[in-house]
Amino acid sequence: MKVLGLDVGTKTIGVAVSDAFGWTAQGVKTIRRHESDASQDFLALEDLIKEYEISTVVVGLPKNMNGTIGPSGEFCKTFAEDLHKRTNIPVKLWDERLTTVAAERMLVDADVSRKKRKKVIDKMAAVMILQGYLDSRN
């Protein structure tokens, strides 16, 4: 039972997948969003769900530091609901506060160039979202 982790943004979607045991998260890719046609984004995700035999999806929920949900969080909630309606598999929301900051710090510490960081930051954030979710279950 594999789990898909998503870091959903307005321009990209970072994607990570768990191993079959649900212990570890690995980065898969970053999907460039189709701003004028969101159905293309969902089709790409549906293909990944089939390819990796996903049983559950975890979408990062960006909360404000005080725990409230702002416009980005509402956007992610709507995205998660729409994904569930399209796939009919469980879609869970996971608090993603500071995951992008932590991913950026990890890449800087690993001496990854700014240009390369920009290409993988969303995928790394998806890994951190998914790993947090997996760790909470085990």
What does this structure look like?
This is Putative pre-16S rRNA nuclease. Keywords: Cytoplasm, Hydrolase, Nuclease, Ribosome biogenesis. It is found in: Cytoplasm. With 138 residues, the chain is α/β, with parallel strands linked by helices. It has a single domain (2-137), classed as 2-Layer Sandwich (Nucleotidyltransferase, domain 5), CATH 3.30.420.140. It is 48% helix and 25% strand. It contains four helices and five strands; from the N terminus they run E-E-E-H-E-H-E-H-H. The protein has a five-stranded mixed sheet with strand order 3-2-1-4-5, with helices on both faces. Helix 3 (99-109) crosses helix 4 (114-137). The longest helix is centred in the C-terminal third of the chain and has 24 residues, at 114-137. It is globular and about 40 Å long. It starts with a strand and ends with a helix. The mean pLDDT is 89.
